[in-house]
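Open question from group meeting: does this chain pack into something compact, or does most of it stay loose? Before anyone orders reagents, we agreed to write out a predicted structure and look at it together. Recording both the input and the output here so the notebook holds the full record.
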Amino acid sequence: MGQLSRSNSIPFGDRGDVDRVKDAADIVRIVGEVVALKSKGREYVGLCPFHDDHTPSMCVVPSKQIFHCFVCQSSGDVFSFVRRFHKMEFREALEFLADRTGVALTPRRAGGGDVAASGPTRNDLLGAAATAQDFFRSILAHPEHGRVGRGIVERRRISSEMAVQFGVGAAPDRWDGLLLYIKSKGLDPRVFIEAGLLKRRESDGGSYDAFRNRLMFPIQDRLGRVIAFGGRRINDEDEPKYINSPESRLFDKSGTLYALPLASRAIQESRTAIITEGYTDVIACHQGGFRNAVATLGTALTAKHATLLRGVCEKVLLLFDGDEAGQRAADRAASVFFSEPLDVAIVTLDKHTDAKDPDELLKREGGAEIFAKALAGAVDLLEYRFARIRERLSGSGMAAMSRAIDAEIEALIGLGLKDVPPVRQRLIIRRLSELAGVDEATLQRAIPAGRSGPRGGAGQGAGRASASERNEDGSLAPIPQRLSAAAHLLGCVLCDGNLHVALELEGRRLIEPERFEESSLRAIAEAVVVLVREGMAPSLNVLLSSTDDEGVRGAAVSLSSRVDLETDRDSERLAAHFRECLRRAKMDKSVASRLGLARGREADSVGGSSDAGPGSDAGAGGLVPEVKLEGQPQARSDTTSAMARLMEARNRHKTLGADRRQLPRG
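Structure tokens returned:
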């Protein structure tokens, strides 16, 4: 137990900081910045960003400052969410939330930052990117070195406000501009090499600048931190026209959208995202008042991009050229967005203007009005595809049209039509029927049977986990679907730590770690023991504040959420549930002892599914079924057994009510 306390607890110097930051942080606001949340009673619900979620399965509970997904079992407090969503280390998450909440952290003693020994950290890389950003901005403002770059900014009619907002800078026309700046500040070039800002020279092991004589556009993560750069050539003879930083621990090109931090508020307010194809297009859109515009970074749209967007909007407008390349891009977009819970439409400017892109159009007089008209005339993705079919087959006979429709339906099935949620699938089929002129029943028969289980059901059908099983992200295996009375009892203690005080020695032994086979439940029980030894009531909030083990955090939130759901977060129902769990757990232990079992087995489980609590049927009379071994005498006579069952039924009626499906009454 002591080892768990040392290895998984928050450092002593940070505990006070953690409590103050946690008290100041609003989990609804923090989660709501990256996930579209909708109020539902006393909770908020939204699409879970940690699995392929198509129907809202994640809830955020303000009263407990926790989140929980009922599908993939992702759970925890505001620290857990920030660390997992933004891929942060603990201290990084603490500093991020402290900055957001205005809490001053206890100064840390310096030391231990040897890059040579351990390699650069994520914070080191972020620091390098921020340093480079300062350098590029200073070069653009330099009277001599930034003169040509400023000329391009002026010719592109990028306002000074937009240049500052988007952090536009310039790289000097020399091989060692950034390198000299780094050395002047006494910084280690190796960090900048890993960040992709410097390159190593093979001839002598030295370094040189990765970006030279280019207009620089910083690329930010979802928090607005610079993680990479895009460079546009200043000299028209240089190739290529654009270059991006290489991928790194900070920068995933296929999972990043340019200007998303600047556009996220407008996207959430309008519920719509505009996706363009370049840096200057995005800046022109924002300058023209269309602040919900973002761009890909020289790559085709990916599933990661779709995941970023589905959490914050309901509609996506894709700007493509009307030429063959644009049509191919639209086809690729269909493969990414088709099965997503998003309305996707194609915008082609050539039907409204001769301008080749939004940047050119929005610089013209009246360009904003034309652009708005083009957006309003966006064509639904399916309609766009079928319009192309009709155009291609114009003048062809019915046979050719039939073959083309069959091929298109096959293509849509290949894109995931059979796996789309039923309601959305029905709407798509209805739309296909209108576009293709084929009745819905015929189309429905052409679609194979759908998926066998829920999408992303990482937590579905989970049984007992092995003692050491952990997921790739370090989380423990999900809480099992079938919970014993002891597991329910442990969950009650998490919901109200003061209930642990009500447990006598025998009751506390019922929730000792050795009582549980499942790694997740045992880890929770171990954390409870540590808290009790330290004189603290082992409630969920106390547990979350005392450990930075995301596996334990997630398991504890998952278990307490199960009990909360069954008791409707009502204190009286929780108390009654606790008493019934304690009674049942003692009975389970007695039965197990009579039969010589070390621990309860399947007969020990409460109910037959994840939503079955101690008030559910679990054999005759709602109790753990009696196990009768061959050759052993009956534990009681038939008459005594009948009388006992009658008394049990009366007591159960008083406690649970006539309907045993309902939860215990206080």
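Observations to bring back to the group:
The CA atoms of residues 616 and 622 lie 6 Å apart.
The domain at 255-385 is CATH 3.40.1360.10 (Dna Topoisomerase Vi A Subunit; Chain: A, domain 2).
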